[in-house]
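Fill in residues.
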């Protein structure tokens, strides 16, 4: 954030209300104005010496706002502006760390989730590709229990980096079965996220046993609207919900006896939660070959927005690499009024750089794109010392061939036997 005032400043969008929150270390003389596209503004005097807040009135979806800062010693001085932000209606395009990574498939001794260093490296890739968000929601990690002290420090460092890069860091909470202890456990975690500087979260019930029952969906709605909707929401906002019925094909987590359509599976949760909060859905199946708007999504009378959770490259085994780039993705997924796209990644991160590259193209994948993706991938591998600069041309050619062939290899050994140029690259 390019300003010279001493305040720690952040902005939050909840529905169509923009909130600016700032903390001043001393009683400085600074003034803050929230400028809205409608011409309205909310003025906040500086010098509070601690923590202050300004909220706009409701603004139309798709309008923009910016924050202006000026030193107030002798009237208004020189302005410093944030770039305009979109209010409720801008599509979010980014990635999600949402895979299953069992101990049996550890790579370099790592399993369950990315390391903090890997996560921060990916934040820089997202910034480089102009992508907006990184969502943390691994299936095999405890996302609710308090962090050890070392993780608290690491998450604060990650949040600081994300903020400096302009990438939204979103923490995925997996509450599991909702009971009487859930509200306090989630609120305690939100307190911890806020202390670390994480400003957004999602609630995820995908693949949670029993989460699609009527009683549990009612409990989820009550958790959100009664216990969380006003709980420090200006400091850590609920971005979206991943429901149990996150794709059209009913499975064991959404009992089929009481509902027959995707819409009816979602009806109770949809009716019990603020309709401005998006549902994150995978589409007509867990990993659909094609996704289009509106045909791949349920028809909800509430008009609730959706975000695509794209499982295209999220293989859950260390023996496979997702080669092919995501195709048949409707460009309308990447822009308003649709909510956006979150690409679920695979592990470890050096195996999915080509997919992140393609995500930024908003569905435009062709032969030229494949060449560009292979070049970007090889550049990443060279920069991060997975390969030497001397190997880069041969590795780039091998990556391009692998992307286009999209062959199944049962192990990394089988891959390198078939493609010797990739020997030692992916372990």
């Amino acid at each position: 954030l390019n300003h010279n005032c001493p305040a720690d400043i952040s902005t939050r969008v909840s529905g169509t209300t923009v909130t600016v929150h700032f903390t001043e270390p001393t009683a400085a003389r600074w003034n803050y104005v929230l400028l809205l596209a409608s011409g309205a503004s909310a003025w906040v005097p500086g010098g509070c010496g601690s923590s202050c807040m300004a909220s706009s009135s409701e603004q139309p979806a798709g309008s923009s706002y910016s924050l202006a800062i000026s030193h107030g010693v002798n009237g208004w001085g020189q302005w410093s502006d944030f770039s305009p932000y979109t209010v409720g209606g801008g599509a979010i395009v980014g990635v999600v760390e949402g895979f299953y990574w069992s101990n049996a498939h550890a790579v370099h001794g790592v399993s369950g989730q990315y390391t903090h260093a890997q996560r921060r490296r990916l934040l820089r890739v997202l910034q480089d590709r102009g992508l907006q968000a990184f969502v943390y929601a691994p299936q095999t990690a405890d996302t609710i229990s308090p962090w050890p002290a070392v993780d608290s420090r690491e998450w604060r460092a990650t949040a600081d980096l994300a903020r400096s890069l302009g990438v939204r860091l979103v923490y995925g909470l997996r509450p599991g079965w909702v009971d009487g202890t859930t509200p306090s456990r989630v609120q305690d975690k939100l307190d911890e996220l806020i202390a670390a500087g994480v400003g957004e979260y999602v609630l995820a019930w995908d693949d949670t046993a029993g989460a699609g029952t009527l009683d549990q969906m009612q409990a989820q709605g009550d958790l959100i609207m009664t216990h969380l909707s006003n709980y420090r929401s200006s400091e850590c906002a609920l971005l979206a919900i991943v429901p149990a019925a996150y794709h059209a094909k009913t499975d064991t987590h959404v009992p089929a006896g009481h509902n027959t359509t995707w819409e009816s599976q979602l009806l109770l949760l949809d009716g019990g939660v603020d309709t401005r909060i998006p549902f994150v859905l995978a589409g007509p199946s867990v990993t659909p070959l094609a996704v289009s708007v509106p045909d791949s999504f349920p028809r909800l009378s509430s008009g609730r927005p959706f975000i695509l959770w794209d499982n295209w490259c999220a293989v859950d085994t260390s023996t496979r690499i997702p080669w092919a780039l995501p195709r048949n993705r409707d460009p309308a997924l990447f822009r308003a009024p649709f909510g956006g796209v979150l690409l679920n990644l695979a592990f470890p991160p050096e195996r999915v750089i080509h997919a992140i590259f393609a995500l930024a193209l908003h569905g435009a994948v062709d032969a030229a794109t494949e060449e560009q993706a292979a070049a970007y991938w090889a550049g990443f591998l060279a920069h991060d010392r997975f390969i030497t600069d001397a190997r880069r041309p041969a590795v780039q050619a091998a990556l391009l061939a692998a992307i286009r062939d999209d062959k199944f290899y049962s192990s990394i050994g089988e891959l390198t036997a078939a493609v010797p140029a990739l020997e030692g690259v992916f372990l």
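The mean pLDDT is 82.
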